[in-house]
């Protein structure tokens, strides 16, 4: 063979060596992945089956040329930022829940106060010896007898006992 043909053959074989620069790893689902790029950082080193010979280790590619403490602080900063935002959102939700609960308690307290005032007025009106009128379902005016008045008085006293504290 002539030397220039031998040189071209050697060049062609060495050029194909670039195709062998492949990464191979097992992903989190258990499938083999082939790529010309390194695997993501969440893939542990034990899952990497093959890496190119001339490639730097993944830890050297990911780390900058600064001191070793810098990457740890940079990695911690976004996580703590997310945690901080999560805590702020939780605090806001807790505050909104507390405000909602306070509003509900205020509404219940106001309703109890109204019921108490109404029951006290009803008790004063139902005092013995006074004629008490009421309107029946047909819209006719009538008067309470002593048994009905006593039942209404007991109901007003029970309301006062429960709502007037």
What does this 3D model show about the protein?
- With 165 residues, the chain is mainly α.
- It has four helices and five strands; from the N terminus they run αβββααββα.
- It has helices at residues 3-15, 58-62, 69-125, 146-163, and strands at 23-26, 32-35, 48-50, 133-135, 141-143.
- Strands 2-1-3 form a three-stranded antiparallel beta sheet, with no helix packed on it. A two-stranded antiparallel sheet has the order 4-5.
- A hairpin with a 5-residue loop joins strand 1 (23-26) and strand 2 (32-35).
- It is rod-shaped.
- The relative contact order is 0.06.
- Mean pLDDT is 80; it is low at 64-77.
In short:
This protein has 165 residues and is mostly helical.
For the largest sheet, list the strands in their spatial order: 2-1-3
- Number of DSSP-assigned strands: 5
Structural class: mainly alpha
Low-confidence stretches: 64-77
Terminal-residue CA separation: 113 Å
List the total number of helices: 4
Largest sheet: 3 strands, antiparallel
Helical amount among residues, as a percent range? 55-70%
Order of helices and strands: HEEEHHEEH
Report the average pLDDT across residues.
Answer: 80
- The shape, in one word, is rod-shaped
Based on CA atoms alone, the radius of gyration comes out at 43 Å
Beta-strand share of residues:
5-15%
